[in-house]
Amino acid sequence: MSVLMMEETSALSDACSTIQKLLKAQIGETRFDQWFAAPTQWQFADSTLTIRAANAFSANWIRTKFSDALRRAGEELLGFAPSIIIEASDTPVAQPPRTKPMETPVCAPAGKAADTGLNNRYTLDEFVVGPTNQLAHRCACSVAEQPRKQFNPLFIYGDCGLGKTHLLQGICRRFQALHPRKKWLYLTGEQFTNDYLESIRLHRTEAFRRRIRQVDLLVIDDVHFFMNKKHTQEEFLHTFNAMDATGRQVVLSSDCAPRGIAALTDALSTRFCSGMVARIDSPDLPMRLDILRKLAARRDWHVDDILLMQLAQQPVASVRELEGLLLQAVTAAEMCRSHAFDDSSSVLQSAIRGVRDRMNFSTPPGINRIIHTSAEYFSITPEILSGSSKNRVASTARSIAMYLARRHSHMSFPDIGRAFGGRNHSTVIGACQRVESQLAESHVISWTASDGVRHQAIAEAIHNITALLRRR
Fold it and tell me: Structural domain boundaries of the chain?
């Protein structure tokens, strides 16, 4: 080994050692020894700190509880926050980011079994399918199995954390398995933009275009990153036209529908809408329960169905939040057991209370927001909801809005009554008690929405309205 290589290895080892000392000063020696001592492995290279924990549980705990502290420790040493990778020791070693943007995309060359770098969990078989994502999943399977036959482009959109990236990477995996001699490329909108700008700077635009346009399947995640980027939009429009003309498949995803992407050119928006546009919505209660069961099974966590149902009923809007809730609940139970608390019921209640505390609004929603969101959900006007109408749907929506106001705002019963057309406090109390009784009885409500008659458990309606309130 050369002197230069020995000095570089020593410097990297010193960096890890120093970061460990700084982290220990932040979180205390006891917590550091519990989570970061051997067999946890540390590696620092190319401005990336990689921590390999003993198992998935420890990796998840470190990622949830100590990521910020690790970044602060790294920034104190280096002057900038390093990238942090936290993984279990039984997963492949993650490669640090490469310095040339031209090399960052994931691409499988024809006829070669490449190390894709895709998330191992993101397969189409592992995707939990339900009423809110069935169309998007079906289209994804069709594109992966028979590209260009029906949908080109395929445009999948929906809020953050609902599974868009899962579907897009699942398409790549199945495409690679079924068409091993064909080329595919997976990029984020940011990667496409950065690579294009870098190719201009290096006078390599033709090489960039050949690399992008000669694949059989081009997948672009988070295409809303193109908004307000005129030159990137022009380049991608030419890319799309070239690929479409040569019979190549394009798949895109975004947080919103094509027409909703701000400052997107009409030409590009029209191209996005020219194929299949599939929306993903928040999972309903049965889907959330199924997702939690699969997440627990994947990690070999034995979780009581009672706890899973309690978690599924929490007001979360995304799969990502569900996964976080499950981790928090299991971790709470695990910590209780490690301290010799054997009463399973108390452990369960402790976990549920912790989850509920974390799901509280950081800023309580205003009463007007609750009224407008509830009215919109039930396809009536705010004036009808807070007015004197005795219509069954209006009465149900009003009672639920009062219940939500009492649960999530700091308003008293009289204050809530005044906000709902000057009603007295006993009316609000009665409405809240009625909703609680219906929740206990798993009551089903019905109303006519823009897409037809809906029948839904009141618990599900309250969950969905709360999730909407949390996003606004």
Answer: 3-88, 101-279, 285-340, 367-471
